[in-house]
Amino acid sequence: MPELPEVETVRRGLERLVVGKTIASIDIRVPKMIKCNVDDFVETLRHQTLKAVQRRGKYLIFLFEEAVVISHLRMEGKYLLFKDKVPDNKHFHVFFHFTDGSTLVYQDVRKFGTFNLLAQDELTDFFRQKKIGPEPTSELFQFKAFQAALQSSSKKIKPYLLEQTVVAGLGNIYVDEALWAAQVHPLRLSSSLTSAEMKQLHKGIIALMAFAIEKGGSTIRTYQNTMGMDGHMQNYLKVYGQTDHPCPRCGTPIEKIKVGGRGTHFCPKCQKL
Q1: Strand partners, 106
Q2: Under a CB-based contact definition with an 8 Å cutoff, are residues 98 and 18 in contact?
Q3: pTM, to two decimals
Q4: Residues with catalytic annotation?
């Protein structure tokens, strides 16, 4: 699943490629992806100009003149822009045809992606209901709130970070990386972390996500940006996908276990339970 660095990379590409374009028509091949009446979705957006593309956690936000579309890529969703003719592809499911003749296509092998249509004044409440935590930046991700959340939680640290409530945007890849950097075992209870460990984890999450965005995200299986290019962060991962490889810090073979049903990578020497 694309995580915050991948979604942010897609957002930046979309901002460069499609902001300012006006929708002429929309072709929807998989109606279940549209989480409202499909006809309303199409008619509301027809003739609307895209003003901006934003992001909140793993969600893309398309701001039109009089409406907002929230897109979640789920497991394998991606956007591609074609200047004229769109090639045949059975995994192309939503087509935004623009007045300049170009088409933005949403591709999704598993058909898990979703589109929500909102009025502009409903945007804040949408994410409040989702209980999405702060963005992982030094300005928004405050240590005291993070510390208080961990100290009051009886949940294991990895599943808690995956929930999106304490901090937005981290998924399986970057939680494993952040916990390795902080030398915290993924099965530790959140409340068992020391203040020093919490500070290290908090600082590491901010630095990791910024670095991953800089590298264009991780291409592990199928992720590509809006230009169809792979990310480069996979070349810098320390533990994720590195089962049996030596830990970059101590040389101990990296292990993989299941935590909350998710494959989890860690160093048994650096990250003691």
Answers
A1: 79, 94
A2: yes
A3: 0.92
A4: 2-3, 58, 262
